[in-house]
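Morning run. Coffee first, then this:
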Amino acid sequence: MPDVQRIKNKGFTLIEIMIAAGLMSLFMTGVFMLYRSGSKAFVAGSWRLDEQKRLQNFLGALSRDIGMASPGLLRIESDGSHNIVINTPFYINSNLLSFNSPPVFMPTNTADWTCLLAFSISYPYIDANATFSTPISYGRWSGVSVWTKNRKIKYVRTGDPVTFSDVPAMLPGAVVGFPDPAIVGAGLDFLPDPELSRNITYDLSLEQMAIVATGTDLMTLGGFEITCRSARYEGGTRTEADMLQSIVVRIASQTNVVTF
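And here it is:
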């Protein structure tokens, strides 16, 4: 007859089963936590790459346009004399501007479109010159404005003074140094410049923005350092994932910077 006692000893006791189940539970919990941590790191890393590309696109366009910013609409007469038809200052929101000092960050989670920057890009009108048999070269103008709302950026460049004044919202009252349709338009000395016109909304996770001006004073600037700080939000809640992106740009001499 088989040894009944020996067969019975081959089974597991309740305590052994509970210990094994506990160890398995701890192991599975560790695996889950490791997976969750890796998944969060992957999502945050992917967000940083995508956000960096979007910020680079925005800051690259802004850098190119700032480099062409004009202090005024210039008219060159046939005798070589130069006349400023209208001064076109470089306007900056005072809440994000500092001068030769640490950056002052302005929140970008505004409920309505808030203007950050506004400036002109123009080419001079050159009158006909009989001595050199050169014809009239008409001037060109376009305006650039940068706005923020709900951590996004609206970037507008247009040659239409009317569109420039009220898209995506009315320019602040202090922003006055821009040509109107009596100066820029068909049949006038200065024509709308359609080159590189844009009306782009950059779908960013932008949290704050700052501009540090460098130079002797606001009348003799060397340039700007523009810094954007983004943060990843999930379900309306800020996560730990964030990043900074900065550029340094030069500005034309004699450009008058005005805050609003």
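The helical segments are 4-9, 14-67, 161-166. Good start to the day.
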